[in-house]
Amino acid sequence: MSDQTVVRLDSVRCRSYGICTSILPDVFDLPAGAPAAVLLRHEVDADDVDDLAEAVRACPAQAILQGPEPT
């Protein structure tokens, strides 16, 4: 069993607020002029799960999800 959590970013919902980049700068990036944040990694280690949960809650656009794609 993996000790990593999957991160998903809905680039259609994302409005480039940048809150996620301040919480997890090694997972999210917001390039200058970009219409949406980008994922730098698609998984986070167990040490970052709490920060990921905070990013999910803090995103005004509700564009961040954790866990695998629903089937």
Protein topology:
Layout: E1 4-9, H1 19-23, E2 28-29, E3 38-39, E4 43-45, H2 49-58, E5 64-66
Antiparallel strand pairs: 1-4, 1-5, 2-3
Describe the overall structure.
- This protein is of the alpha+beta class and 71 residues long.
- The chain contains two helices and five strands.
- The protein has a three-stranded antiparallel sheet, with helices on one face. A two-stranded antiparallel ribbon has the order 2-3.
Helical fraction? 10-25%
Main pleated-sheet profile: 3 strands, antiparallel
- Low-confidence parts lasting 5 or more residues at pLDDT below 50? none
Please provide the count of β strands. Answer: 5
Secondary-structure content class: alpha+beta
Characterize the overall form: globular
How many helix segments?
A: 2
Mean pLDDT level: 93
Strand order of the largest sheet: 4-1-5
Gap between N and C termini, in Å? 19 Å
**Share of β-strand residues:** 15-25%
